Amino acid sequence: MSASKVEGIGEAGREGLPEGWAWATVGDILVAPVVNGRSVRTEAGGFPVLRLTALRSDNVDLSERKEGEWTADEAAPYLVRADDFLICRGSGSLDLVGRGALVPEAPDPVAFPDTMIRVRVPAEHISPRFLTRLWASPLVREQIECAARTTAGIYKVSQPAVREVKIPLPPTAEQHRIAAALDTRMGQLDTIEVKLSAALNHLDALQNSTMAAAATGLLDPEAVPAAAPTTAAADLDDGSLPDLADGWIWSRLADIAEVVGGVTKDSKRQSDEALPEVPYLRVANAQRAHLNLSQVAKIRVPVKTLSKLRLKSGDLLLTEGGDRDKLGRGWIWENQIKECIHQNHLFRARIQDDTTHPKLLAWYTNSAARGWFESHAKQSVNLASISMSKVRNLPVPIPPQAKQIEAVAAGEQSLGRLKVLVELTQQALTNTAMLRRALLAEAFSGRLVPQDPADEPAEELLKRIRVEREIAEAERKTAPKATRARGQATASPPPAKADDTILANGEQTALPLEFNS
To answer: What does the pLDDT look like over 44-58, one tens digit per residue?
Structure first.
C-alpha cells in the first residue's frame, strides 16, 4: 500500500514523516503469511508448546512451555524460530490482547498455540527489533484496542486486524539505528525502574516495621523491649508474639473492643424502595493500612440493620476473607461518608473505654499481626477466611494510658516521612513510564536518530517486498497439496480440555479453545 493510500493516522501521504519514510500496513511489510497457532490438549511427554505467559514485555520467555498432545510432524508448521514475532490473540484484559514479543534466539523445537498469532518479517528488509519496539508504541496500541472484539468477556484480535495495523516505515538502515537507540535508552530506563521498584519494596518493609514498632511502644528510643505474658485462649496457639515496651501489656481484642460482622446482601430486598439505600464497604475498600473509597457500592437494608451497623469515627475495619496474606488488613473509619455500613466479609472493631488508640490497634493488625491472621485462617479451594471467634481472640498490645498520645505521635511522624518517600518514588516510576512513551513518539516520528540521504527510501523497499510476496504466493499455489497444507498451517485442531482457558483477568496457565479469526 502506498503512502498516499493510508488514511486515519496522522497526515495523509508522507506529510508528518521524514523524507524517505512511508506509511504502510503490517501486511505491506510481510512476505510470509500471518499464521494463527493451533489448539492442542495437554499431554505429559508430548511435543513442547509455549504458554501464553511466555509473552513478556518485549521478548518471548522460551522456558514458559508445556507439553501438547501432538506429534513433531503435526507441530512442524507451528514451530517458532529466532526473530519470529508472536502476538497475544485473546485475553480477558484489553491491555494484554494484541501484545507482542520477539523470539530472541534460536530455540529448541517448540510450537506456538492458538492463543498466539505469528508474524515473520523478512529480516533483510525489516528489523525485527524495530517492529517489536513499534508494536509497544501508543500508535499501534490504539489501533489494536479499537480492533479488538469481545466474546464472553474475552477480548480477541484477528489476523486481518493485525495485517491492517498502519505503521510509519523508515528505510531499513534507519530501522536498525532506531532499534539500537531504543534498546540503549530503554535498557537504561529498565535499570532505573528495577532500582525504583526495589526502593519501593524496601520502603514497604520499613513501613511495616515502623507500624509494628509504633504499635508495641518500641519507637521510643528509651523503651526497653521485653516479652510480656498473654492470657490463655481455649484451643488457640498464639505462636511467637513480638516484644513490648516496658509497661505495655497483652490483651485480647474482645476484651477491649466490640467486634461485629457486616451485612449479607439480600437480592430480594434490593428492589424494595421502602428500605433506605445506603453506602456500604466491601473487601476491595479495605486495603493495607488505608481505605480505598474511589468506588463505594450501595445497598438497601432495614432501618434496624442500618442502626446496628452504622460506622462511627474510630471504627477499625478488618478483612474476613480473600487471599491468605491479606486477611486482617484494613484501616480506621473517619466518617468520610454519611450513613455508611459494611458487608459481612469485613469485621468492625469498635474500641471501648479508650483502652488504646485506634491507630495503634490498626498499625498492629496491619503489620506484626499479619502472621497471626495467616496461621489461624481456614483455606478453601480459592479463598482463605478467618472466623469472628478467632478474630475476637487476637492478642493486641495495650499501652499505659499516659503513653498513648506519645506513641501515636511518634508513629505518625515516622510514617509520614516514609509516605513522602513512597510518593516521590512512585512519581519517579510514573515519570519513567512517561519517558518511555516520549521516546517511542520521538523514535517513530523520525526525531530520535538522524536520517541518512543515502538510505534506500521506504517506498522502494515496499516495492521490493511486494514483488517477493507475489513470488512467494505463486510458489505456494503451485506447491504440492500436502506441502501447501503444511506450509499454510491450516490443520483442523482438536478440541481443548476444559481447563484450557483464558482467565477473565487476562492470566492464563493453559491453552484455550481455538478462536475464530
So the answer is: 889 999 999 999 988
Strand partners, 361: none
Q: Are 133 and 179 in contact (CB under 8 A)?
A: yes
Residue the block writes with cell 514523516: 17
> How far apart are alpha carbons 61 and 344 in whole angstroms?
42
Beta strands at 65-68 and 42-50: parallel, antiparallel or unpaired = antiparallel
Residues 70, 512: Cα–Cα separation, whole Å: 16
Rounded CA separation 67/128 (Å): 28
- The per-residue pLDDT for range 86-119, each reduced to its tens digit, is 999 999 999 999 999 999 988 899 999 999 999 9
> From CA 486, how far away is CA 229, in angstroms rounded?
75
List alpha helices for 312-403, DSSP H.
358-365, 370-375, 388-392
Quote the cell numbers at residue 464: 521490493
The Cα 70–Cα 108 span in angstroms is: 16
Q: How far apart are CA 206 and CA 244, in angstroms?
A: 19
Q: Terminus-to-terminus CA distance in the chain, angstroms? A: 23
3-state DSSP call for residue 281? Answer: strand
Are 394 and 362 spatial neighbours (Cβ–Cβ below 8 Å)? Answer: no
Calculate the dihedral angle through the C-alpha atoms of 53, 55, 60, 64, rounding to the nearest 10 degrees: 10
Q: Are 64 and 51 within 8 A, CB to CB?
A: yes
377: number of Cβ within 10 Å: 21
Give the mean model confidence (pLDDT) for residues 347-353. 97
- Closest C-alpha to 349, from 378, 320, 321: 320
What's the pLDDT at 272?
A: 87
Residue 293 grid coordinates: 473509597
- Residues 65/42, Cβ–Cβ less than 8 Å: no
Provide the grid cell at 511: 491453552
What DSSP line would sit under 443-466, residue for residue?
Answer: HTTT-SS---TTSPPHHHHHHHHH
H/E stretch holding 72 reads helix 72-75
- From residue 86, give the alpha-carbon distance in Å to each of 45, 47, 151, 178: 24, 19, 22, 21
The Cβ-side half-sphere exposure at 455, using a 13 Å CA radius, reads 21
Nearest-angstrom CA–CA distance, 236 and 249: 19
Phi/psi at 88 (5° precision): -70, 120
- Per DSSP, the three-state class of 68 is strand
**Whole-angstrom distance, CA of residue 98 vs CA of residue 105:** 22
Are 14 and 5 within 8 A, CB to CB? no
- Confidence tier at 478 by pLDDT (50, 70, 90): confident
Please tell me the distance from the alpha carbon of residue 48 to that of residue 53, in angstroms, as a whole number: 14
